[in-house]
Fold this protein.
Amino acid sequence: MRRVLNILRVFIIKLHRYHPYWHKYDAATQAALRRKLIKKRWTLGMFEAKYRQPEWCNYPEALSGPMGCWKLDSDGVHSLYDCMFCDELKI
């Protein structure tokens, strides 16, 4: 049991080293990544652990698919300007 916990801890540490922002990818790259992750049978939890929402976003779990930010999920956010009129913008 202890060995399994150590393996999980190392895996989580490695995951957090590379933690890119989802909004920085262009539309084609996001679509390609979605297809790739679906083929690998990733869950939303795995996706949220790998990618981050923008630092100006105050929406709780914005990348959580249908319950998250629809604009961020549908390739509508690439800069702060895209979120100017959002209620969840950090000021």
About this structure: The CA atoms of residues 5 and 49 lie 18 Å apart.
